[in-house]
UniProtKB/TrEMBL annotation:
Residues 31-272 form the ABC transporter domain. It comes from Cellulomonas iranensis. This is ABC-type lipoprotein export system ATPase subunit. SUPFAM superfamilies: P-loop containing nucleoside triphosphate hydrolases. The keyword Ion transport does not apply. The lineage of its organism: Bacteria, Bacillati, Actinomycetota, Actinomycetes, Micrococcales. InterPro entries: AAA+_ATPase (IPR003593), ABC_transporter-like_ATP-bd (IPR003439), ABC_transporter-like_CS (IPR017871), ABC_transpr_LolD-like (IPR015854), MacB-like_ATP-bd (IPR017911), P-loop_NTPase (IPR027417). Keywords: ATP-binding, Lipoprotein, Nucleotide-binding, Transport. Gene3D superfamilies: P-loop containing nucleotide triphosphate hydrolases. The keyword Metal-binding does not apply.
Length: 322
């Protein structure tokens, strides 16, 4: 568009454009991470654990975050749990601005809004307390009366299918049972969000599937929003939405949808989508880049329904030069 044409744009057109502008990033989402950066300094070496991560989670969603070891998963959960403060970016959970909380607000946030399950089964539970006492402990810290604590703890253990473990100490339970009790403990004060960092990392495959099923039950039956982190890409078979993080950034998502065929039978389709970030960046899969030898500069062309990426010296007139 030329300068003259630009200035000739009528007021009505501008107003129309302003109205059509998409709403602010994250409007309506429960968890909003925008361009999150977390840099660790250790012995003069700088590690960028999060490099401009964007993530939106709606109320009631169950999202799995997958990524290789070192991709920034634990850093992300530490930020969301209020344990760690990012170096830059924006992060909000419900009404809480996690960049701007005072120490006192941080304690309130951790007690009321989020529940946490760690990978190490031993870290989740107090070893000399029974399952029921473990679940009741956060309730006591929140000032709930003793009788209510007993009733609620028993109910939570039932929801997680481990009511029969109420009087056992962690050492008297299997790894899977301990993680279910840990989930019940994390839910003690009815948090809006349950965060789980590799909760199945120390379990065998069958028990892992079991614990994931428990997280799904919690999400469906109690309506708790769940973010579960794992290095196991197989998790995408079990949840509706899987977000992949690579090098401290969300790179792609797998969405599973259950549809009904004409004959009434249900089937599930999984679709992998790349994530376009706020700055317009998208990560091209390595196989695609290698197949066409894409390195350094590439040529982009806007087609009617898509954008094409060509090697720098390829012809760009029309689709492929056939
Ligand atoms: N406290 C820390 N000090 C220095 N580097 C850290 C610290 N915590 C994590 N890192 C580094 O940040 C990167 C991301 O770590 P992390 O979030 O633990 O990844 P993941 O949980 O996906 O394995 C890694 O390179 C890790 O070595
Ligand atoms: Mg980790």
């Amino acid at each position: 568009m030329t300068e003259a044409a630009g200035t000739a744009t009528s007021l009505a057109t501008l107003e129309e454009r302003a109205r059509a502008r998409p709403e602010a990033f994250g409007t309506g989402a429960l968890i909003v991470c925008e361009s999150l950066v977390r840099i660790y300094q250790s012995e003069g070496v700088e590690v960028q654990a999060l490099q401009g991560l964007d993530l939106l989670v709606r109320t009631g969603e169950l999202v799995a975050v997958v990524g290789a070891s070192g991709s920034g998963k634990s850093t992300l959960l530490a930020v969301l749990s209020g344990l760690d403060v990012p170096t830059a970016g924006q992060v909000r959970v419900g009404e809480w601005d996690l960049m701007a909380m005072t120490a006192r607000q941080r304690v309130a946030y951790r007690r009321s809004t989020v529940g946490f399950v760690w990978q190490q089964t031993a870290r989740n539970l107090v070893p000399y307390l029974t399952a029921a006492e473990n679940v009741a402990l956060p309730m006591a810290l929140a000032g709930r009366p003793r009788r209510a604590r007993r009733v609620d703890a028993a109910e939570l253990l039932d929801v997680l299918g481990v009511g029969y473990c109420a009087d056992r100490r962690p050492g008297q339970m299997s790894g899977g049972e301990q993680q279910r009790v840990a989930i019940a403990t994390a839910l003690a004060n009815s948090p809006q969000v349950l965060l789980a960092d590799e909760p199945t990392g120390e379990l065998d495959t069958a028990t892992s599937a079991d614990v994931l099923a428990a997280l799904r039950d919690v999400n469906r039956d109690l309506g708790t929003t769940v973010v579960v982190v794992t290095h196991d890409p197989g998790v995408s078979d079990h949840v509706q939405r899987t977000v992949a993080i690579r090098d401290g950034r969300t790179s792609s998502e797998v969405l599973r949808r259950t549809t009904t065929r004409d004959d009434g039978t249900e089937h599930t389709v999984a679709e992998e989508l790349a994530v376009l970030d706020r700055a317009g960046r998208v990560q091209l899969p390595r196989e695609y880049r290698e197949a066409l030898d894409l390195v350094g500069r590439v040529r982009l062309t806007l087609e009617q329904s898509h954008i094409a990426v060509h090697p720098e010296h390829a012809r760009t007139d029309g689709e492929d030069a056939r």
